[in-house]
């Protein structure tokens, strides 16, 4: 494992990586949901993200072809794309997203 210094920038990189992993895991099971649910889910598992941080993260996931965003009223509806499913399952990897925990 790569040694990372205990600096705020490094911790934020790790946090973002874990948040993206959690979002992909939920979407892989559910297929799609809304951004408010994802914010609540992240807070529940200890990876709280502000609305601005969540919007930036979802935009980044969409830019990388992992999810598709649709605006419905005040919500972003988030749906997983095929590549997002492949990253969620561990078949593909992106360096900024935590790898899935594989069964032993």
Automatic annotation (TrEMBL):
Superkingdom of the source species: Bacteria
InterPro entries the record matches: WH_DNA-bd_sf
Protein name per its UniProtKB record: HTH marR-type domain-containing protein
Lineage: Bacteria, Pseudomonadati, Pseudomonadota, Alphaproteobacteria, Sphingomonadales
């Amino acid at each position: 494992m790569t040694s990372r210094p205990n600096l705020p920038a490094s911790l934020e990189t790790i946090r973002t990586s874990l948040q993206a992993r959690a979002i992909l895991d939920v979407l892989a099971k559910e297929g799609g949901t809304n951004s408010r649910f994802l914010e609540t889910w992240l807070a529940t598992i200890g990876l709280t993200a502000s609305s601005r941080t969540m919007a930036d993260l979802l935009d980044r996931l969409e830019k990388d072809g992992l999810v598709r965003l649709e605006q419905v009223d005040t919500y972003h509806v988030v749906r997983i794309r095929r590549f997002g499913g492949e990253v969620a399952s561990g078949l593909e990897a992106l360096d900024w997203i935590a790898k899935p925990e594989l069964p032993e």
